[in-house]
Amino acid sequence: MEEAENICDKIVMINKGKKIYITGKGRCNLTNACDTEDLFAAIMKNAKFLYSAIYTFDNHALMDYFAGLGLKMKIERGNRVFPQPVVPTIARY
């Protein structure tokens, strides 16, 4: 179980852009805990493009996947889901 509690220590993310940095101000917003229909309503353009992908593996399935790996999560304001403990996910160089 100790291994699962330290999963954040073993994850390395490499990204040349700023997309990861802006997901939860560098805390790595994993997903949103809203209902699937609310998720589609929040997509600004071409939500139908994502129907197949989201209905195959939705936000709740993603949360279950991470929980199965032993990652603890916290749901914050706006149903945003973050890993726990909250640790900076981006090392700025």
Descriptive account of the structure:
The chain is an alpha+beta fold. It contains five helices and three strands. Helices cover 32% and strands 13% of the residues. A three-stranded antiparallel beta sheet has the order 1-3-2, with helices on one face. The longest helix has 10 residues.
Counted beta strands? 3
Rg, nearest Å? 14 Å
Helical segment count: 5
- Low-confidence parts lasting 5 or more residues at pLDDT below 50? 89-93
Q: Roughly how much helix do the residues carry, as a percent range?
A: 25-40%
Order of strands, main sheet, comes to: 1-3-2
What shape does the CA trace take?
globular
| End-to-end gap | 33 Å
Mean pLDDT across residues: 75
Set out the fold topology.
Blueprint: H1 2-5, H2 19-22, E1 31-32, H3 36-41, H4 51-56, H5 59-68, E2 72-76, E3 80-84
Antiparallel strand pairs: 1-3, 2-3
